[in-house]
Amino acid sequence: MIVAFSVTPLGVGEDVGEYVADAVRVVRESGLPNRTDAMFTSIEGEWDEVMAVVKRAVAVVEARAPRVSVVMKADIRQGVTDGLTSKVDTVERHLSE
Questions:
Q1: Torsion angle of alpha carbons 40, 42, 46, 52, nearest 10°?
Q2: Is 2-95 a CATH 3.30.70.930 domain?
Q3: With 95 labelled, which of 39, 48, 59, 68 sits at a CA distance of 20 to 30 A?
Q4: Half-sphere exposure of residue 97, counting CA atoms within 13 Å on the CB side?
Q5: Rounded alpha-carbon distances, angstroms, from residue 38 to 6, 14, 35, 78, 90
Q6: Which of 49, 54, 46, 48 lies closest to 4 in space, CA to CA?
Q7: What is the Cα–Cα distance from 40 to 44, expressed in whole angstroms?
C-alpha cells in the first residue's frame, strides 16, 4: 500500500517547518520507500508497517504541539511493489507520447 499523509501542528504559530521535519525524519528513518513534496509525504509498504510509521510521525509532532491535524489518503493494491516510482513513471511515459 501507499499512504500519502500530511501532519500539521496547530497552536504553534505559522512557521511549522521544524515540526514537519520531525515527522519526515521518522518516515525516512523507517527504511520504507518514501517521497516528500510540498504537500504530502508518501510511504509504501505493508499495512501494519506503514500505519505504525504514520502513527510515530504524528506522535513526534504531538509531543511538541497542543493539537495536530492529519490528512491521509491510501492506495491499497495487492501484489504491487515499487508503486511510488512505477505510478509516476507511467504518467511520465504518457506525457512523452
A1: -50
A2: yes
A3: 39
A4: 6
A5: 10, 16, 10, 28, 21
A6: 54
A7: 13
pTM confidence score: 0.89
**Sequence ranges of the domains in the chain:** 2-95
Q: Strands, DSSP E only, in the chain?
A: 2-10, 34-36, 41-44, 67-75
pLDDT digits (tens, 9 = 90+) for 10-56: 999 999 999 999 999 999 999 999 999 999 999 999 999 999 999 99
Q: Which three cell numbers stand for residue 44?
A: 509504501
Cell of 67: 493539537
